[in-house]
Every structure is written in C-alpha cells, then in structure tokens.
Amino acid sequence: MSSQKGNVARSRPQKYQNTFSFKNDKFDKSVQTKKINAKLHDGVCQRCKEVLEWHVKYSKYKPLSKPKKCVKCLQKTVKDSYHIMCRPCACELDICAKGGKKEDIVIPFDKEQEIENNDNNPSSSRRSHKRPDDDDGLEFDIDDDSQGTD
C-alpha cells in the first residue's frame, strides 16, 4: 500500500494466510494457564463475556493477586479480574459485574455459588465415601463371583 493520498485500494491479496489459530497453552503448560482456561465467566453480560474470553484465548488475561475494591460497597471483595463490583452487589442489583450496566446476565452467579459452597466443605464429601478397609470384603465377593462363571 502506498502513502499516496487517496490510494486506499489494495491490488493484491494478503501475502501470508493464517493456516492455524493461536493456542494459548501451546508452550505454556503451567497450572495457572490451566486454571485460567477452565474459569467460568459468570455474572456478566454477553459483550463482557466475549471480552473476557478474548483475553483468555490470546493469553492476555491477568488474574488478580489480591482482592480489589468494589465500587458499590467499597469493600475489598472483588476477586475476579476486570470486574468492578463484588458478587453480592452484582446479584443484589442484577447488573453486569464487569461493565456495571443493567443488561441481560448470560450466566448468573447463583449456580456458581452453590457449587463453591459444596467445594469449600470437603469434610461432608469425605463422610459420604467408604473407607478402603470396608471395601476389601466387597472386592473379594466380586472376584469370587467372576471366577465361578468361567
């Protein structure tokens, strides 16, 4: 393309075609990258969700090292990067936690909070699992039945 005034039409196609897409975990196989790729962006509108996904896709997403101040309650409770308000304030006001505008929320916070509450209480999940000592008799019975059918 020339720098001539008015010469904006390109006379040829681009020289190098993109044959493969960028992979943010091609060379960086760290735990932090895996966490960022697995993160669910909830409590935001569609546009903000797309922006956050772009940041993740092209390795531009930088997680917070310490909580940030919420613009509504003025407490240091914002734990998600690029968000301006905390989860309780965004849920209460039913607005986007990143943009701060009253728009349709794609994935509400409520579903995520229930999952987090279950994950934070590992003692209840430990009680539901059987101890390996109790399973020894069960495994013996299964092996015994399988040998008898052969």
Structural class: mainly alpha
Biggest pleated-sheet summary: none
- Proportion in β-strands: under 5%
Number of DSSP strand runs: 0
Radius of gyration: 26 Å
Sequence of secondary-structure elements? HHHHHH
Shape: extended
How far apart lie the N and C ends? 78 Å
Provide mean pLDDT, rounded: 79
Low-confidence segments: 122-144
Please estimate the helix content.
Answer: 40-55%
Number of helices: 6
Mind explaining what this structure looks like?
The protein is mainly α. 43% of the residues lie in helices and 0% in strands. The chain contains six helices and no strands. The longest helix has 18 residues, at 132-149. The protein starts with 30 loop residues before the first helix and ends with a helix. Mean pLDDT is 79; it is low at 122-144.
Q: Helices and strands in order, then pairings?
A:
Layout lengths: L30 H8 L7 H12 L29 H7 L15 H12 L1 H7 L3 H18 L1
Summarize the structure.
With about 150 residues, the protein is an all-alpha fold. The chain has helices at about 30-40, 45-55, 85-95, 110-120, 120-130, 130-150. The model is unreliable at about 120-145 (pLDDT under 50).
How would you describe this structure in keywords?
150 residues, mainly alpha, 6 helices, 43% helix, extended
